[in-house]
Amino acid sequence: MLSAATPPFLTMDGNDGAPARDTLPAGLPFSDLAEGPPLRGDIRQLTGLRGIVALDVALSHYGLNQIPGLRLLSFANPAVDLFFCLSGFTLCLVYGAGRVGRLRWRAYFVARFARVYPLFLLTTLVTLCYSLAWQVGSFPQHSAADLLIQFVRQATLLSEIPLPSLGPVPGAMGCWNDSAWSISVEAACYVVVFPPLFALTRRARRMDAGAIVLAMVALGAVSFVVFAKLFTPNINDPGYPQPAYSLALFVPLIRGGTMFGAGWLAYLLYFAHREAASFLGTITDTLALGFLAVAASEWFGLLASSAVVIIVPFLILGLMDGRTVTARILAARPIHYLGAISYSLYLWHVPGLSLAERLWPWQPGERLHGMLWPLALSLALSAVSFHGFEMPVRRAINRWAVVRRA
Asked: pTM for this one?
Protein backbone atom coordinates (compact mmCIF):
# COMPACT_ATOMS: atom_id res chain seq x y z
CA MET A 1 0.00 0.00 0.00
CA LEU A 2 1.06 3.60 -0.40
CA SER A 3 2.63 5.35 2.50
CA ALA A 4 0.30 6.62 5.20
CA ALA A 5 2.02 9.96 4.77
CA THR A 6 0.78 10.29 1.19
CA PRO A 7 -1.49 13.37 1.03
CA PRO A 8 -5.12 12.34 0.44
CA PHE A 9 -5.42 14.61 -2.59
CA LEU A 10 -2.72 12.61 -4.37
CA THR A 11 -4.58 9.33 -4.12
CA MET A 12 -7.00 7.79 -6.58
CA ASP A 13 -9.53 6.33 -4.19
CA GLY A 14 -12.56 4.14 -4.77
CA ASN A 15 -14.80 7.18 -4.49
CA ASP A 16 -12.90 8.75 -7.35
CA GLY A 17 -13.68 5.78 -9.53
CA ALA A 18 -10.21 5.91 -11.04
CA PRO A 19 -7.49 3.32 -11.32
CA ALA A 20 -5.21 3.78 -8.35
CA ARG A 21 -1.46 3.74 -8.56
CA ASP A 22 -1.76 0.95 -6.00
CA THR A 23 -4.72 -1.35 -6.58
CA LEU A 24 -5.89 -3.50 -3.71
CA PRO A 25 -6.53 -7.15 -4.57
CA ALA A 26 -10.24 -7.97 -4.76
CA GLY A 27 -9.95 -11.02 -2.54
CA LEU A 28 -8.70 -9.44 0.68
CA PRO A 29 -10.69 -10.39 3.79
CA PHE A 30 -11.83 -7.88 6.41
CA SER A 31 -8.86 -8.51 8.67
CA ASP A 32 -6.45 -7.35 5.96
CA LEU A 33 -8.36 -4.21 5.03
CA ALA A 34 -9.64 -2.97 8.36
CA GLU A 35 -6.25 -2.72 10.05
CA GLY A 36 -3.57 -0.09 9.64
CA PRO A 37 -3.58 3.44 8.18
CA PRO A 38 -6.28 4.99 5.96
CA LEU A 39 -6.66 3.21 2.64
CA ARG A 40 -4.81 4.67 -0.32
CA GLY A 41 -5.77 2.09 -2.91
CA ASP A 42 -8.63 1.40 -5.25
CA ILE A 43 -11.07 -1.18 -3.86
CA ARG A 44 -11.85 -2.92 -7.11
CA GLN A 45 -15.27 -4.35 -6.26
CA LEU A 46 -16.61 -0.99 -5.06
CA THR A 47 -15.31 0.70 -8.20
CA GLY A 48 -17.00 -2.03 -10.23
CA LEU A 49 -20.24 -1.50 -8.32
CA ARG A 50 -20.13 2.18 -9.23
CA GLY A 51 -19.68 1.21 -12.88
CA ILE A 52 -22.65 -1.17 -12.96
CA VAL A 53 -24.88 1.42 -11.31
CA ALA A 54 -23.80 4.19 -13.72
CA LEU A 55 -24.50 1.83 -16.63
CA ASP A 56 -27.97 1.10 -15.25
CA VAL A 57 -28.73 4.82 -14.97
CA ALA A 58 -27.71 5.34 -18.60
CA LEU A 59 -29.69 2.34 -19.88
CA SER A 60 -32.75 3.38 -17.88
CA HIS A 61 -32.65 6.82 -19.48
CA TYR A 62 -32.32 5.11 -22.86
CA GLY A 63 -35.48 3.06 -22.37
CA LEU A 64 -34.40 -0.11 -20.58
CA ASN A 65 -37.58 0.07 -18.49
CA GLN A 66 -39.68 -0.15 -21.66
CA ILE A 67 -38.28 -3.49 -22.85
CA PRO A 68 -40.15 -6.52 -21.46
CA GLY A 69 -37.87 -8.77 -19.43
CA LEU A 70 -34.94 -6.34 -19.43
CA ARG A 71 -36.93 -3.74 -17.56
CA LEU A 72 -36.53 -5.88 -14.45
CA LEU A 73 -32.94 -4.69 -14.34
CA SER A 74 -33.82 -0.98 -14.34
CA PHE A 75 -33.48 0.77 -10.98
CA ALA A 76 -32.25 4.24 -11.99
CA ASN A 77 -33.76 6.32 -9.17
CA PRO A 78 -32.36 4.38 -6.18
CA ALA A 79 -29.08 4.05 -8.10
CA VAL A 80 -28.34 7.65 -7.21
CA ASP A 81 -28.95 6.89 -3.53
CA LEU A 82 -26.39 4.10 -3.84
CA PHE A 83 -23.87 6.65 -5.16
CA PHE A 84 -24.47 8.86 -2.12
CA CYS A 85 -24.07 5.95 0.29
CA LEU A 86 -20.93 4.73 -1.46
CA SER A 87 -19.43 8.20 -1.27
CA GLY A 88 -20.08 8.46 2.46
CA PHE A 89 -18.48 5.06 3.04
CA THR A 90 -15.42 5.47 0.83
CA LEU A 91 -14.67 9.01 2.02
CA CYS A 92 -14.43 7.65 5.56
CA LEU A 93 -12.03 4.96 4.35
CA VAL A 94 -9.82 7.33 2.40
CA TYR A 95 -9.60 10.09 4.98
CA GLY A 96 -9.21 7.70 7.92
CA ALA A 97 -12.27 8.71 9.92
CA GLY A 98 -11.67 7.71 13.55
CA ARG A 99 -8.01 6.89 12.85
CA VAL A 100 -6.53 10.32 12.23
CA GLY A 101 -7.04 13.26 14.54
CA ARG A 102 -8.52 15.76 12.13
CA LEU A 103 -9.58 16.29 8.57
CA ARG A 104 -7.05 18.22 6.53
CA TRP A 105 -9.47 20.74 5.12
CA ARG A 106 -7.41 22.14 2.26
CA ALA A 107 -6.41 18.72 0.95
CA TYR A 108 -9.97 17.47 1.32
CA PHE A 109 -11.64 20.32 -0.57
CA VAL A 110 -9.00 20.41 -3.30
CA ALA A 111 -9.53 16.69 -3.88
CA ARG A 112 -13.31 17.01 -3.95
CA PHE A 113 -13.18 20.01 -6.30
CA ALA A 114 -10.76 18.23 -8.65
CA ARG A 115 -12.90 15.11 -8.51
CA VAL A 116 -16.30 16.50 -9.48
CA TYR A 117 -16.20 20.07 -10.76
CA PRO A 118 -14.17 20.28 -14.00
CA LEU A 119 -16.11 17.54 -15.79
CA PHE A 120 -19.39 18.81 -14.37
CA LEU A 121 -18.71 22.30 -15.74
CA LEU A 122 -17.58 20.96 -19.12
CA THR A 123 -20.69 18.82 -19.63
CA THR A 124 -22.92 21.69 -18.49
CA LEU A 125 -21.39 24.02 -21.09
CA VAL A 126 -21.60 21.35 -23.80
CA THR A 127 -25.27 20.75 -22.96
CA LEU A 128 -25.98 24.48 -23.14
CA CYS A 129 -24.26 24.81 -26.52
CA TYR A 130 -25.97 21.92 -28.29
CA SER A 131 -29.34 22.72 -26.71
CA LEU A 132 -29.22 26.24 -28.12
CA ALA A 133 -27.84 25.13 -31.48
CA TRP A 134 -30.37 22.31 -31.94
CA GLN A 135 -33.22 24.08 -30.11
CA VAL A 136 -33.66 21.26 -27.63
CA GLY A 137 -36.75 21.27 -25.42
CA SER A 138 -37.76 24.66 -24.04
CA PHE A 139 -34.38 26.33 -24.54
CA PRO A 140 -35.57 28.59 -27.41
CA GLN A 141 -38.26 30.01 -25.12
CA HIS A 142 -35.81 31.39 -22.56
CA SER A 143 -34.29 34.82 -22.69
CA ALA A 144 -30.56 35.37 -22.36
CA ALA A 145 -31.15 36.68 -18.82
CA ASP A 146 -33.04 33.52 -17.83
CA LEU A 147 -30.27 31.32 -19.20
CA LEU A 148 -27.63 33.35 -17.40
CA ILE A 149 -29.46 32.95 -14.07
CA GLN A 150 -29.79 29.23 -14.65
CA PHE A 151 -26.14 28.90 -15.60
CA VAL A 152 -24.94 30.75 -12.50
CA ARG A 153 -27.17 28.58 -10.32
CA GLN A 154 -25.76 25.41 -11.87
CA ALA A 155 -22.13 26.53 -12.10
CA THR A 156 -22.14 27.34 -8.39
CA LEU A 157 -23.55 23.86 -7.65
CA LEU A 158 -26.70 25.36 -6.13
CA SER A 159 -29.24 23.90 -8.55
CA GLU A 160 -30.75 21.61 -5.91
CA ILE A 161 -30.57 24.07 -3.01
CA PRO A 162 -34.11 25.43 -2.51
CA LEU A 163 -34.57 29.18 -2.47
CA PRO A 164 -38.02 29.46 -0.84
CA SER A 165 -38.32 33.21 -1.25
CA LEU A 166 -37.60 33.08 -4.98
CA GLY A 167 -38.94 29.69 -5.89
CA PRO A 168 -36.94 27.14 -7.85
CA VAL A 169 -35.07 28.47 -10.86
CA PRO A 170 -36.39 26.84 -14.07
CA GLY A 171 -34.47 23.93 -15.50
CA ALA A 172 -34.89 20.19 -15.97
CA MET A 173 -34.34 18.65 -12.53
CA GLY A 174 -32.42 21.82 -11.70
CA CYS A 175 -29.78 21.09 -14.37
CA TRP A 176 -29.75 21.22 -18.15
CA ASN A 177 -27.92 17.90 -18.11
CA ASP A 178 -30.66 15.86 -16.44
CA SER A 179 -28.36 13.49 -14.55
CA ALA A 180 -26.16 16.27 -13.14
CA TRP A 181 -28.63 17.32 -10.45
CA SER A 182 -27.06 14.83 -8.03
CA ILE A 183 -23.68 16.60 -8.30
CA SER A 184 -25.21 19.61 -6.57
CA VAL A 185 -26.41 17.34 -3.75
CA GLU A 186 -23.07 15.52 -3.57
CA ALA A 187 -21.23 18.84 -3.27
CA ALA A 188 -23.58 19.96 -0.48
CA CYS A 189 -22.86 16.72 1.39
CA TYR A 190 -19.11 17.27 0.98
CA VAL A 191 -19.47 20.59 2.78
CA VAL A 192 -22.30 20.08 5.27
CA VAL A 193 -22.59 16.33 5.99
CA PHE A 194 -19.21 14.60 5.79
CA PRO A 195 -17.03 16.94 7.93
CA PRO A 196 -19.22 16.68 11.07
CA LEU A 197 -19.60 12.93 10.59
CA PHE A 198 -15.82 12.64 10.31
CA ALA A 199 -15.45 14.58 13.57
CA LEU A 200 -17.99 12.35 15.34
CA THR A 201 -16.43 9.05 14.33
CA ARG A 202 -14.13 8.55 17.33
CA ARG A 203 -16.97 9.02 19.78
CA ALA A 204 -19.53 7.17 17.69
CA ARG A 205 -17.35 4.07 17.45
CA ARG A 206 -18.51 3.28 20.98
CA MET A 207 -22.03 2.70 19.70
CA ASP A 208 -23.38 -0.81 20.04
CA ALA A 209 -23.41 -2.81 16.80
CA GLY A 210 -27.16 -3.33 17.10
CA ALA A 211 -27.76 0.40 17.45
CA ILE A 212 -25.66 1.07 14.34
CA VAL A 213 -27.62 -1.49 12.34
CA LEU A 214 -30.94 0.00 13.46
CA ALA A 215 -29.71 3.48 12.55
CA MET A 216 -28.67 2.26 9.08
CA VAL A 217 -32.14 0.79 8.53
CA ALA A 218 -33.79 3.94 9.86
CA LEU A 219 -31.85 6.28 7.53
CA GLY A 220 -32.59 4.04 4.56
CA ALA A 221 -36.26 3.98 5.53
CA VAL A 222 -36.38 7.79 5.78
CA SER A 223 -34.84 8.14 2.32
CA PHE A 224 -37.31 5.60 0.92
CA VAL A 225 -40.40 7.17 2.49
CA VAL A 226 -39.44 10.73 1.52
CA PHE A 227 -38.77 9.64 -2.05
CA ALA A 228 -41.95 7.56 -2.32
CA LYS A 229 -44.22 10.23 -0.84
CA LEU A 230 -42.72 13.52 -2.00
CA PHE A 231 -40.47 12.99 -5.01
CA THR A 232 -41.60 15.09 -7.97
CA PRO A 233 -39.38 14.57 -11.05
CA ASN A 234 -40.26 17.81 -12.86
CA ILE A 235 -40.47 20.12 -9.88
CA ASN A 236 -37.93 22.59 -11.34
CA ASP A 237 -39.24 22.56 -14.89
CA PRO A 238 -40.47 25.90 -16.31
CA GLY A 239 -44.11 26.49 -15.48
CA TYR A 240 -44.38 23.47 -13.21
CA PRO A 241 -46.82 24.21 -10.34
CA GLN A 242 -45.51 24.59 -6.82
CA PRO A 243 -45.71 21.35 -4.82
CA ALA A 244 -48.42 20.82 -2.24
CA TYR A 245 -45.73 20.43 0.43
CA SER A 246 -42.68 22.69 0.52
CA LEU A 247 -40.71 19.74 1.90
CA ALA A 248 -40.79 18.31 -1.65
CA LEU A 249 -38.19 20.92 -2.61
CA PHE A 250 -35.79 19.32 -0.14
CA VAL A 251 -36.18 15.71 -1.28
CA PRO A 252 -32.84 15.60 -3.17
CA LEU A 253 -30.98 16.99 -0.15
CA ILE A 254 -32.73 14.59 2.23
CA ARG A 255 -31.81 11.66 0.01
CA GLY A 256 -28.20 12.76 -0.14
CA GLY A 257 -27.89 13.45 3.58
CA THR A 258 -29.56 10.26 4.76
CA MET A 259 -27.58 8.01 2.42
CA PHE A 260 -24.27 9.73 3.18
CA GLY A 261 -25.13 9.08 6.83
CA ALA A 262 -25.96 5.44 6.09
CA GLY A 263 -22.58 5.07 4.39
CA TRP A 264 -20.88 6.56 7.45
CA LEU A 265 -22.73 4.13 9.73
CA ALA A 266 -21.64 1.23 7.52
CA TYR A 267 -18.07 2.45 7.97
CA LEU A 268 -18.58 2.58 11.76
CA LEU A 269 -19.67 -1.05 11.72
CA TYR A 270 -16.67 -1.95 9.58
CA PHE A 271 -14.27 0.05 11.74
CA ALA A 272 -15.47 -0.75 15.24
CA HIS A 273 -17.40 -4.03 15.04
CA ARG A 274 -15.39 -6.45 12.98
CA GLU A 275 -17.45 -9.55 13.79
CA ALA A 276 -20.71 -7.95 12.66
CA ALA A 277 -19.06 -6.62 9.52
CA SER A 278 -17.49 -10.00 8.79
CA PHE A 279 -20.91 -11.65 9.10
CA LEU A 280 -22.25 -9.31 6.42
CA GLY A 281 -19.35 -10.40 4.26
CA THR A 282 -20.56 -14.00 4.47
CA ILE A 283 -24.05 -13.07 3.22
CA THR A 284 -23.01 -10.56 0.53
CA ASP A 285 -24.21 -12.77 -2.31
CA THR A 286 -27.59 -13.12 -0.59
CA LEU A 287 -27.76 -9.36 -0.14
CA ALA A 288 -26.97 -8.86 -3.83
CA LEU A 289 -29.77 -11.24 -4.84
CA GLY A 290 -32.10 -9.45 -2.44
CA PHE A 291 -31.17 -6.12 -4.00
CA LEU A 292 -32.00 -7.41 -7.48
CA ALA A 293 -35.23 -9.01 -6.26
CA VAL A 294 -36.48 -5.82 -4.63
CA ALA A 295 -35.46 -3.74 -7.66
CA ALA A 296 -37.42 -6.08 -9.95
CA SER A 297 -40.45 -6.42 -7.66
CA GLU A 298 -41.87 -3.06 -8.70
CA TRP A 299 -42.70 -4.43 -12.14
CA PHE A 300 -44.85 -7.09 -10.48
CA GLY A 301 -46.65 -4.54 -8.31
CA LEU A 302 -45.11 -5.93 -5.12
CA LEU A 303 -42.77 -3.28 -3.77
CA ALA A 304 -41.34 0.03 -4.98
CA SER A 305 -37.83 -0.47 -6.31
CA SER A 306 -36.63 2.51 -4.26
CA ALA A 307 -36.90 0.25 -1.18
CA VAL A 308 -33.49 -1.15 -2.12
CA VAL A 309 -31.94 1.87 -0.36
CA ILE A 310 -32.47 0.00 2.92
CA ILE A 311 -30.26 -2.83 1.65
CA VAL A 312 -27.59 -0.62 0.05
CA PRO A 313 -25.34 0.18 3.07
CA PHE A 314 -25.28 -3.48 4.11
CA LEU A 315 -24.38 -4.56 0.57
CA ILE A 316 -21.56 -2.01 0.33
CA LEU A 317 -20.13 -3.14 3.65
CA GLY A 318 -20.43 -6.80 2.73
CA LEU A 319 -18.52 -6.17 -0.49
CA MET A 320 -15.46 -5.21 1.53
CA ASP A 321 -14.89 -8.94 1.86
CA GLY A 322 -13.62 -9.44 -1.65
CA ARG A 323 -13.78 -13.24 -1.55
CA THR A 324 -17.50 -13.47 -2.36
CA VAL A 325 -18.85 -14.29 -5.81
CA THR A 326 -20.45 -10.86 -6.14
CA ALA A 327 -17.24 -9.06 -5.19
CA ARG A 328 -15.18 -11.07 -7.66
CA ILE A 329 -17.62 -10.36 -10.48
CA LEU A 330 -17.58 -6.65 -9.74
CA ALA A 331 -13.77 -6.68 -9.53
CA ALA A 332 -13.38 -8.29 -12.98
CA ARG A 333 -11.29 -6.16 -15.32
CA PRO A 334 -14.05 -5.00 -17.76
CA ILE A 335 -16.44 -4.08 -14.93
CA HIS A 336 -13.65 -2.39 -12.99
CA TYR A 337 -12.79 -0.27 -16.03
CA LEU A 338 -16.47 0.61 -16.41
CA GLY A 339 -16.28 1.80 -12.80
CA ALA A 340 -13.17 3.83 -13.59
CA ILE A 341 -15.02 5.79 -16.29
CA SER A 342 -18.35 5.77 -14.41
CA TYR A 343 -18.34 9.47 -13.54
CA SER A 344 -17.74 10.35 -17.18
CA LEU A 345 -20.48 7.94 -18.24
CA TYR A 346 -22.87 9.39 -15.69
CA LEU A 347 -22.38 12.93 -17.00
CA TRP A 348 -22.00 12.17 -20.71
CA HIS A 349 -24.84 9.72 -21.25
CA VAL A 350 -27.53 12.41 -21.62
CA PRO A 351 -25.49 14.51 -24.09
CA GLY A 352 -24.60 11.21 -25.78
CA LEU A 353 -28.29 10.48 -26.28
CA SER A 354 -28.87 13.88 -27.89
CA LEU A 355 -25.87 13.41 -30.18
CA ALA A 356 -26.97 9.88 -31.13
CA GLU A 357 -30.44 11.11 -32.03
CA ARG A 358 -28.86 13.79 -34.20
CA LEU A 359 -26.41 11.51 -36.02
CA TRP A 360 -28.55 8.40 -36.53
CA PRO A 361 -32.20 8.86 -35.52
CA TRP A 362 -34.42 5.85 -34.93
CA GLN A 363 -38.12 5.11 -35.03
CA PRO A 364 -40.16 4.80 -31.79
CA GLY A 365 -40.46 1.02 -32.19
CA GLU A 366 -36.72 0.46 -32.61
CA ARG A 367 -36.06 0.06 -28.90
CA LEU A 368 -32.77 -1.80 -29.05
CA HIS A 369 -31.37 0.63 -31.62
CA GLY A 370 -32.53 3.52 -29.43
CA MET A 371 -30.69 2.01 -26.46
CA LEU A 372 -27.53 0.38 -27.82
CA TRP A 373 -26.49 3.10 -30.28
CA PRO A 374 -26.57 5.92 -27.68
CA LEU A 375 -24.85 3.62 -25.19
CA ALA A 376 -21.99 2.81 -27.57
CA LEU A 377 -21.54 6.50 -28.35
CA SER A 378 -21.69 7.49 -24.68
CA LEU A 379 -19.16 4.82 -23.67
CA ALA A 380 -16.78 6.10 -26.33
CA LEU A 381 -17.29 9.70 -25.19
CA SER A 382 -16.74 8.62 -21.59
CA ALA A 383 -13.49 6.80 -22.31
CA VAL A 384 -12.10 9.73 -24.30
CA SER A 385 -13.26 12.18 -21.64
CA PHE A 386 -11.78 10.12 -18.81
CA HIS A 387 -8.34 9.73 -20.35
CA GLY A 388 -8.21 13.03 -22.24
CA PHE A 389 -9.86 15.45 -19.81
CA GLU A 390 -11.00 14.13 -16.44
CA MET A 391 -7.74 12.57 -15.27
CA PRO A 392 -5.32 15.11 -16.78
CA VAL A 393 -7.26 18.03 -15.27
CA ARG A 394 -7.53 16.29 -11.91
CA ARG A 395 -3.79 15.62 -11.84
CA ALA A 396 -3.04 19.21 -12.87
CA ILE A 397 -5.18 20.61 -10.03
CA ASN A 398 -3.56 18.26 -7.53
CA ARG A 399 -0.06 19.19 -8.72
CA TRP A 400 -0.95 22.86 -8.46
CA ALA A 401 -2.16 22.28 -4.90
CA VAL A 402 1.11 20.58 -3.97
CA VAL A 403 3.17 23.45 -5.42
CA ARG A 404 1.04 26.05 -3.64
CA ARG A 405 1.39 24.16 -0.38
CA ALA A 406 5.16 23.99 -0.75
From this structure: 0.87
